[in-house]
Design goal:
The radius of gyration is 21 Å and the shape is globular. It is built from 17 helices and 13 strands. It has helices spanning 14-25, 42-58, 72-76, 90-103, 115-139, 152-163, 174-185, 217-226, 234-242, 250-255, 264-269, 276-296, 309-319, 365-386, 391-399, 401-406, 409-423; strands spanning 5-9, 34-38, 65-69, 81-84, 144-147, 168-170, 193-200, 203-211, 214-215, 245-246, 323-330, 343-351, 354-357. The protein is an alpha/beta fold and 437 residues long. The strands form three sheets. Strands 3-2-1-4-5-6 form a six-stranded parallel beta sheet, with helices on both faces. Strands 7, 8, 9 and 10 form a four-stranded antiparallel beta sheet that branches.
Length: 437
């Protein structure tokens, strides 16, 4: 596999595609790769192709092959790696995920992982994932599918259950950037810290945090005790009460538990930005427009690496260079006290033989308790699709901690009916039923 073929599905997410390509072409052994770009939006696909050609030139990847494909199977044929960065419904669907729950009195900050936003993002993504899995099985059966599309844990569980693909890993930068932030906080270079994390995506836990044999949690405790502003972060609040630091931002972390968003005093104390993701959506659109205009005018682009895991995994498999990355994979005994079929986030070894998840053992019981609730909601969403059972959608929302804290059960069913109606054609036919409340 001297010059791998790497297919980008959803390449019209131009800013993310650019970052991944900057990382790929910074690795000398990958400068001759074939990059096959696919998107259903012709304008975004053209922008992605022009951006990719620019980055290849900037990074000295003169031997790279860059092709753009409106046809997905054409892009996938013969691929060694498939990077999925699709967002079904784009900004319009995301706005629906916030506005309808808000009318029912439900607060969300990001809405892409758990809760009503996460549930419906998953349900509109599953039909696409099933088609993608069927295409991969047919035209590039040996390819590794590297998934970036959220809700990560639901999508990985569904992919492995519905498609039969085994070379699937979900990738997220939350562990890496959490450790970067913690290293800065305790004033120890990131390269010098020893850490280990595990759990579920966006709700994993820093189990080990050390420098030269010293437990850095002691240093973190001192900082928190002396800094009131630090104590006004959700993830710091969770750390103080649970004993282990969560691996996602406070905005994310607040949505997966029942304690914060439903209470005005907590929203104020912890400075929680309700509906924050809608601003991110607008920023992404603006950034895409700036990129498109700059390329059209022949202006230089700022090409920055992202330290994402996909380029590192590809490099390790192609060259045999061993690395440890964090991946989302089916549990199958990796974390002893979490369900076997759920998708968990654990350290993974990667080299020429592929990606090997590592056994973590049992999480501390309070952490496993939270993760089990998260995975229970996920399981009902996946079962809704696999069994074509619309009742499971409502039951998942009932189980979700933040939704259950905010709304009575009758209102939860009403909200799900409204969401089903709004997303309509994006859902598989059997899940479009209105069930009443």
């Amino acid at each position: 596999m001297n010059h791998p073929k790497i297919a980008f599905v959803g390449a019209g997410s131009v800013v993310f595609t650019q970052g991944l390509l900057a990382d790929l072409f910074a690795l000398p052994e990958l400068t001759g790769a074939h990059i096959a770009l696919h998107d259903i939006d012709p304008e975004r696909l053209t922008t992605a192709r022009v951006a990719a050609e620019y980055i290849a030139k900037e990074r000295g990847a003169a031997h790279a092959t860059i092709t753009a494909h409106a046809d997905r199977r054409e892009a996938l044929t013969g691929a060694d790696f498939v990077i999925n960065i699709v967002q079904i419904g784009m900004g319009e669907a995301t706005r629906t995920d916030f506005e309808i729950p808000a009318r029912h009195g439900l607060r969300q900050t990001i809405g892409d992982t758990l809760g009503v936003g996460g549930i419906f993002r998953a349900l509109r993504t599953f039909p696409f994932l099933k088609e993608l899995g069927a295409d991969i099985a047919e035209v590039c059966p040996d390819a590794w599918l590297l998934n970036y599309t959220n809700p990560m844990a639901m999508n990985v569980q569904y992919l492995t259950a519905a498609t039969g693909l085994t070379k699937v890993v979900g990738l997220c930068h939350s562990v890496y950037w959490t450790m970067q932030d913690l290293a800065r906080l305790v004033k120890v270079p990131y390269e010098e810290i020893t850490y280990r994390a595990a759990g579920v995506n966006h709700q994993a836990w820093v189990l080990r945090f050390e420098h030269e044999g010293r437990n850095l949690y002691e240093k973190l405790d001192e900082l928190i005790a002396s800094d009131e502003q630090l104590r006004r972060r959700v993830r710091v609040d969770m750390y103080r009460r649970l004993g282990y630091y969560p691996t996602e931002t406070s905005e994310h972390s607040s949505e997966y538990v029942p304690w914060y968003l439903h209470h005005d005093s907590e929203v104020e104390r912890l400075r929680l930005p309700i509906g924050a993701y809608l601003g991110i959506v607008d920023d992404n659109v603006a950034e895409y427009e700036r990129t498109r205009e700059a390329l059209g005018a022949g202006k230089p682009l700022t090409v920055e690496g992202t330290m994402e895991y996909a380029p590192q995994i590809i490099h390790s498999i192609v060259t045999g260079t061993p690395r440890t990355v964090y991946g989302n994979v089916p549990n199958h005994g990796l974390i002893d006290n979490l369900p076997a079929h759920g998708a968990v986030e654990v350290p993974c070894l990667v080299d020429a033989t592929g990606l090997q998840p590592t056994h973590v053992g049992a999480l501390p019981p309070q952490l496993a308790a939270l993760n089990r609730t998260y995975l229970s909601a996920n399981d009902l969403v996946v079962r809704a699709a696999l069994e074509d059972d619309p009742r499971h959608i409502r039951q998942a929302a009932m189980i979700d901690p933040a939704t259950a804290a905010a709304l009575p059960v009758e209102r939860i069913w009403q909200l799900c009916d409204d969401m089903v109606e709004a997303h309509g054609e994006r859902l598989q036919p059997g899940l479009r039923a209105q069930l009443g409340h």
